[in-house]
Amino acid sequence: MYSLIRKFLFSMQPETAHNFTVQSLKLAGNLPFPIFPMPENPTEVMGLKFKNPIGLAAGADKNGEAIDGFGKLGFGFIEVGTVTPLAQDGNPKPRQFRIVEAEGIVNRNGFNNLGVDVLVENVRKSKYEGILGINIGKNAITPIERALDDYQICLRKVYEHADYITVNISSPNTKNLRTLQYGEALDDLLKSLKAEQTQLSQKFGNYKPLVLKIAPDLSEEEIASVADSLVRHQIDGVIAGNTTLSRDPVAGLINAEQQGGLSGKPLNALSSRLIRTLAKELNGALPIIGSGGIHSVVSGQEKIDAGAKLLQVYSGMIYAGPKLIQDLAREIKLG
């Protein structure tokens, strides 16, 4: 069945197909029954109880428009965003490209979204009963030295509406954003956001975990440095990882030369390496959410075995369909 749907969707430009899917799932969210059941494979991570360990990665539903529809596909958790303080158009179109031979996607979206206030209103209307994460970023017009201001604005606005909040400093499509992953810049950011989290937890009487999303392109030394910062600043979790700038797995294929971040099946080995290295450096101090390249139960299990406690999918679902979520949720064996 999905092969026919995919053929229809792949007849469109990637971003058109994406928007069509989001709007379709927005309508499906009103159905009084699930499209697919939510498989039970419970786990507890960051003090949160997940019905199953399979989540929707950020980027699929940037504005939280279709939370209930995505929920009907069986996800144990959903992460919406990336959202910024102000609405922004993102980078010029076209900005999404399929690498069909390799089941990959290149995007250079640039945090296109309707702004944090719109997302919060959509979250308020949602009836989804799983765990909801909100992924926050900075506006393109905000100088990198003022990035903290944007993250604090978003953190304050989403805090009471999220089960956890992800800080995205690893998109390759916002100028200089990835520089926040290094050294003093990372320490300053995490220290300030941890203090903000503490104040907000006292204000609302409810502790919401803070998660950092990092790039798969970091060297082993850089991963070790990030891990050290995460532990010192008592960050609650880490997503490993975002899209890659590497084109080694898709060299010579159509659209491989497009600028942006590569996701999908070609990212599998790189993201698994990131998880393994992180797990070694963290030594259980905080949980890892595995994201990037998951296209089958085998690839998902590889990430659990490497040290991940939860998994996130997006591009893999575009190629394999919603059955991937069901298969992962039912068959993944948690460590």
Keywords:
single chain, 335 residues, alpha/beta, TIM Barrel, 11 helices, 37% helix, 17% strand, globular, membrane, dihydroorotate dehydrogenase (quinone) activity, oxidoreductase, Dihydroorotate dehydrogenase (quinone), FMN
How are the SSEs ordered, and which strands pair?
Elements: H1 2-9, H2 14-28, E1 43-45, E2 48-50, E3 54-56, H3 67-71, E4 77-83, E5 96-99, E6 104-107, H4 116-125, E7 131-136, H5 147-158, E8 164-168, H6 183-204, E9 210-214, H7 220-232, E10 237-240, E11 261-264, H8 268-282, E12 288-291, H9 297-306, E13 308-313, H10 315-320, H11 323-331
Helix pairs in contact: 5-6, 6-7, 7-8, 8-9
Description:
It is a single chain. The chain is an alpha/beta fold and 335 residues long. 37% of the residues lie in helices and 17% in strands. The strands form 3 sheets. The protein has an 8-stranded parallel beta barrel, surrounded by 4 helices. A 3-stranded antiparallel sheet has the order 5-6-11, with no helix packed on it. Strand 3, helix 3 and strand 4 form a beta-alpha-beta unit. The radius of gyration is 18 Å and the shape is globular.
